[in-house]
Amino acid sequence: MLRFFSSPRRPGEPISRREWLRIGGLAGFGAALASHNSSVLQAASSDTPAIPGFGRARSVILIYTSGGQSQLETWDPKPDAPLEIRGEFAAIPTAVPGTFVSEHLPRLAQLADQYAIVRSVSHDDLDHGSAGYLALTGHFHPNKSSNPPPRPIDLPTYGAVLKRVRPAGTFPYSAVHVNGPALVPEAIGPGQDAGLLGRDFDPLLLGDVSSTPIAVPCLDALPELPGVRLSARQSLVASLEELCRGAEQGGPAPDRRQRGMENAYQQAYHLLASPRSRQAFDLTAEPDAVRDRYGRHRPGQACLLARRLVEAGVPLVTVIWNQSNRGQDKEPDSTAAYGWDTHNDIFEALRGHLLPRFDATFSALLDDLDERGLLDQTLVVCMGEFGRAPQVALEKRFAGSSPGRKHWASVYSLVMAGAGIAPGTVYGASDRIAAQPHLHRVGPDDISATMFSALGIDPAGHFQDAFGRPYPISTGRPLEGLYG
């Protein structure tokens, strides 16, 4: 059963029992209290329809491009800047007159009238771990510009907050993370779990969904499994857990330390018990042409699964585009290993590995959602934790023989589409070299506020932890200008 969840140690390995207990100890204790104090839950207000776009989305798909996608080589090219700033790539016109993107995004250029570009996102956190935490929670990490491990006292990821203020309805999960967890570059980055809310609020975490016909292992055999046998297996697991409680550390473990594992089992059985849920994960139900259109690789099939999950009613799906922010150091010949952290060899990496897949898959997702009538009720957000510097240079501390770009958080770009977002909009602007915001500075908290608002949750509201302490859903403001 543990194969449903990705490992905190290596991509593709199952989580060990010891690791579940280690990470889930304090968090599980908080979740246990929450289960006995449900009266302290404070749902966000849903009576603020004056916010443009409020409640327009049934679901949100967040595409997280871990590593720092260069704004100059994607959404905000500067063709008139000097070569050492603009880089090797040319800018091409899009379907929106006056809007240009990188020459290596030809399909997305043709679809520019379906999405909006935000070119003025800015903050001051300069390392992947803490900036990833900011991107996936909407809040700064206490240790800014660092690579901290996940902690049980972390603020929760978006999906955990969503489950706290609006528990799942028709689908067993409020949120699913696909192709995760995001690694920095080999350790799990913070901001991807429920943190202080406890393991009960963790999103469902899936790894490589392209590696098996069914996105969740073992689901293909379960439709024929009688309910009595499934119940018997659940009872057997409970009995085995009772016998194992004394195995950790040579003696009986406190019940609170078991809660993370028990919650994992319960969520898995809940998932397996629902035929509709099982069908959502069956990628073999898609025509070969559709699977090929998305790409038969990790991010391609993850985006296809995201579309199937929003069709099944999952409110929030986060796709970790590339599992490692910088896997190319160990596997330079494997496109699947590449992350967006391109300190050196940026043009080779983008031209030969990153941008072709991104252009094909992200355009396929937008087209597919639109063709199926889902884009109007699905907010799509594509963003990384920061951008790249407006200076091409060789960094001696990193692998590679040709120049690249270092981390840059002062200004970068992202894309939003659907759920009332005005298509073809370019919101905000960077300066002439894409170094600083020039117009309408946007913070990551504004992005989180926009996502929660789209789902009909007042971002100015609060949620409470198991001890009744209030935390803001978001400290930002929805980007009203995106709704035209």
Question: Could you walk me through the main structural features you see in this protein, from its secondary elements to its overall organization?
Answer:
- The chain has 484 residues and is α/β, with parallel strands linked by helices.
- The chain contains 12 helices and 16 strands.
- It has helices spanning 17-36, 83-86, 106-110, 128-137, 158-165, 227-244, 259-272, 275-280, 288-294, 298-311, 346-371, 444-454, and strands at residues 59-64, 91-93, 100-102, 115-121, 175-178, 204-205, 316-320, 378-383, 387-388, 407-408, 412-417, 426-427, 429-430, 437-439, 462-464, 470-472.
- Residues 1-46, 220-225 and 246-257 have low confidence and may be disordered.
Overall SS class: alpha/beta
Q: Order of strands side by side in the largest beta sheet?
A: 6-5-7-1-8-11-4-12
Number of helices: 12
Largest sheet: 8 strands, mixed
CATH class: Alpha Beta
Order of helices and strands: HEHEEHEHHEEHHHHHEHEEEEEEEHEE
| Cα radius of gyration in angstroms | 22 Å
Residues in helices, as a percent range? 25-40%
> Rough shape?
globular
Summary, kept brief:
With 484 residues, the protein is of the alpha/beta class. The protein has 12 helices and 16 strands.
Q: What is the element layout, followed by pairings?
A:
Elements: H1 17-36, E1 59-64, H2 83-86, E2 91-93, E3 100-102, H3 106-110, E4 115-121, H4 128-137, H5 158-165, E5 175-178, E6 204-205, H6 227-244, H7 259-272, H8 275-280, H9 288-294, H10 298-311, E7 316-320, H11 346-371, E8 378-383, E9 387-388, E10 407-408, E11 412-417, E12 426-427, E13 429-430, E14 437-439, H12 444-454, E15 462-464, E16 470-472
Parallel strand pairs: 1-7, 1-8, 4-12, 5-6, 5-7
Antiparallel strand pairs: 2-3, 4-11, 8-11, 9-10, 13-14, 15-16
